[in-house]
Amino acid sequence: LEANQRILWEYLPQHDSSLSLIPPLAHDVMESVTIVGDYTIHGTLGEGQYAAVYACSRNASKLNDITALVRVHSEISALSDPALRHPSLLSVKHVIHTSKFIYLVTERGGKDLFDFFAVADAAYSAHAKALLQAMLTEDAENRPTIYDVAEHPWFDGHRRRHSARHKDRLVKAASSKGDMAAAVHSPTRPTSAEHVSVTLPSIKGPDKPHHYPR
After folding, report:
1. What are the residues facing 210 on neighbouring strands?
2. In contact, 106 and 79? CB cutoff 8 Å
3. pLDDT per residue over 68-91, tens digit each?
4. Where do Basic and acidic residues bias regions lie (predicted)?
């Protein structure tokens, strides 16, 4: 196991171009429970399947598991991408590669997603919650149709911003709904003696039934 770990940490990043963003192994970096290089660790912020996040004196440092080398490289690539620079997104400030771990030093963010849900009732409005619950109803008889969904109060804000476009959609939906109802309730034409007569419901309805040979 130790030999495999040595290959994983020391050999692959230097000989596999797909892992080029992982720096060479640093042998002169001080590493302990409370210190990693120039950073002092003050406590654990959280832990996941592949990483643990620690609070440092200046930044946040991410400690990654040995089995996640490719995942670490992908994360470095994403956090270093200039196209993804945004005040709400973390970016890599420093990468430290030691004999034990790979450390990703980033700015320390604010609340995580779980903290947000802990103080908020929901991340969406009551109208949206009610609509989703109705759409997920198992009983088809009580489940709203596409027309009911289009007329739900949750769409009011969108209608106000795009009133002309939504009005046109609602008119078309109501028209189609009426045509379909009329087609379903229209009497079926009688069958002939020589051919099988089939009436196919459609939006406008055919003038004559479609005949198919026996």
Report:
1. 198
2. yes
3. 566 777 777 777 777 777 777 777
4. 205-214
Q: Quote the radius of gyration of the chain (alpha carbons, Å).
A: 31
Beta-carbon count within 10 A of 22 CB: 19
Quick one: which of 47, 38, 42, 60 has its CA closest to 105? 60
**Intervals of CATH 3.30.200.20 along the chain:** 2-114
H-helix segments, the chain: 2-6, 12-15, 69-80, 113-119, 126-135, 146-150, 156-161, 163-185
- Kindly state the percentage of the chain with pLDDT values over 90: 0
Structurally, at CATH architecture level, domain 2-114 sits in 2-Layer Sandwich (3.30)
The pTM of this model reads 0.28
Residue 148 is which amino acid? Answer: D
72-77-83 Cα angle (round to 5): 150
d(CA 90, CA 55): 14
